Amino acid sequence: MKIWDIVIVGGGPIGIACGLEAKKKGLSYIILEKGCIVNSLYNYPLNMQFFSSSEKLEIDEIPFISIEAKPKRNEALEYYRRIVTSNHLNISLFEKVSSINKIDGLFNIVSEKSTYTSTNVIISTGFYDIPNRMNVPGEDLKKVTHYYKDPHFYSNQKVAVIGASNSAIDAALECYRKGADVSLIIRGPEVGQRVKYWVRPDIINRIEEGSIKVYYNSTVKEIKEDEIILNSPSGTTSLKNDYVLALTGYMPNFEFLEKIGIQLTDDEKRLPQYDPQTMETNIDNLYLAGVICGGMETHKWFIENSRIHAHMIMDHIVKKTKSVNSYQEK
């Protein structure tokens, strides 16, 4: 039976960074990714542009060259794919992990394809797979989606975009520019303050000139085949509607974390327990890396400020391994 030094769950940028660091440290590792390479980035909108500049998205000091200062989705896909292939990283794609259990000091990792035994595990699964649902009647209609890809599909359609953050604002602007009749429904009193600084003036101008209709302080009451019903300051409002883009954010797979045994705070933030100096959780030799560390505060961690996790984790694993070996030699 092969015992891996590390099994890394998640093949996004931070999981890849962990693989690179493990390889440099001479540790045996495998990255298990349930989709394609950087699966979350692949599922981003086709024309998405990052908030971060290219150098802040770099991992392992490998240069990221982009046409503009802030790269787009297709450039990021090419960058991370080339890192994986050029460095011959040991990654298994389209292999979803179903369970992780610790038995007699070793982790038993079960996937859809195989079973692995490892001394250490790193969870780097991000948060993009589970949308924050509105929990309203009609949310499961075919006209409703929590993911947005390409504006062409919505041309000449009445589209309601739900949300006030970057994904919703980008979708509203792109659909409007492809000829959609866009209504923007925002729960709060304004467009989100964290919207990209070069995009926020654009959406505000489109709203002020009447090109995009906005409903502030409003929530969705019900979605029907040909309309959407809102709770708004003026009362119940009905809008003719063909499609709904419910871009209300996403969350980590808390059920998966709890099943493993990782402790979460019992407040709305659902923060997982880990040592910020080593990234080790309440379970010895089980680590978190990347945006999953933020629980529901998905805006706190990005590639640029979590890529350091790979170094922190590997340094801690090597230190612990040396300590154990030194003790055994005595």
Secondary structure topology:
Elements: E1 3-9, H1 13-24, E2 29-32, H2 39-42, H3 73-86, E3 91-92, E4 97-103, E5 106-111, E6 115-123, E7 130-131, E8 144-145, E9 158-162, H4 166-177, E10 181-185, H5 200-208, E11 213-215, E12 219-223, E13 227-232, E14 235-240, E15 243-246, E16 250-251, H6 254-260, E17 286-288, H7 303-306, H8 309-329
Parallel strand pairs: 1-2, 1-6, 2-3, 6-17, 8-15, 9-10, 9-15, 10-11
Antiparallel strand pairs: 4-5, 5-6, 7-16, 12-13, 13-14
Spatial shape: elongated
Continuous helix count: 8
Sheet with the most strands?
7 strands, mixed
Number of domains as seen in the coordinates: 2
Distance between the termini: 27 Å
Please give the CATH architecture of the largest domain: 3-Layer(bba) Sandwich
Mean pLDDT: 93
Q: What is the succession of H and E elements?
A: EHEHHEEEEEEEHEHEEEEEEHEHH
- Count of beta strands: 17
What is the CATH homology-level superfamily of the largest domain? FAD/NAD(P)-binding domain
The stretches of 5 or more residues where confidence is low (pLDDT under 50) are 326-330
CATH topology of the largest domain, what is it called?
FAD/NAD(P)-binding domain
CATH class of the largest domain: Alpha Beta
Radius of gyration: 22 Å
Question: Can you give the helix content as a percent range?
Answer: 25-40%
Strand content: 15-25%
Structural class: alpha/beta
